[in-house]
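Homework help board

Subject: predicted structure for assignment chain

Our instructor gave us this sequence and asked us to write out the predicted structure in token form, then describe one feature. I got the tokens but I'm not sure how to describe them. Can anyone check?
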Amino acid sequence: MLSVMEPSPTCPSAKARVGDPLHAEMLALRAGRSESLRAIYDAASPRVHGLALRITGDARLAEEATVETFVRAWRRAATYDPARGDALAWLLALARSAALDGLRAARRSAATAPEPPFALEALPADAGTAASAGAELAERRERVRAATRSLPPEQAAVLALSFWEGLPHTAIAERLGIPLGTVKTRIRLALTRLAQVLRSVEPA
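My token output:
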């Protein structure tokens, strides 16, 4: 288990972070407490999703980037360093990276699809690179789909509606006839499980 090192008490910003609940949960996650991912998701997911949506301009890509952000947070928790910035800033940096990665991969994948009547003009100069990027995106999505199949049915259902159909939580609650709080709880539980599964099959 990783040792938890509190920031130096001589640093004013570090003192402020000691009382920050998100900071405390990040330290717990860094120490290997996977349950903290749920609390981190509760606190930060609106900001993460909002940033991802602004970057991608696409609801589905934003949902994918949001999920990817918390998966990365779980896998890379050991790199969280309170001395370099607060927990939310660290998460938003992950979100920005995930959103840009998803946006670039989606654009490259789209560039390989034929567009009638003439597709040749739309192909990039290095079509092989674009095809490779599209394959990587497809492979990443398939890993997530496979991990989703390991979830309990009720968690898989809400995650599929959010992740694959891009529905907001309120719309999911209406479609399934369940309370909004239940939707959020199931998504949190599903994200925790997904992070654990993906961490075991993906390189750090």
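Reply (TA_rk): Your tokens look well-formed. For the description, you could write something like this. The first helix runs from residue 12 to 18. That's the kind of observation they're looking for.
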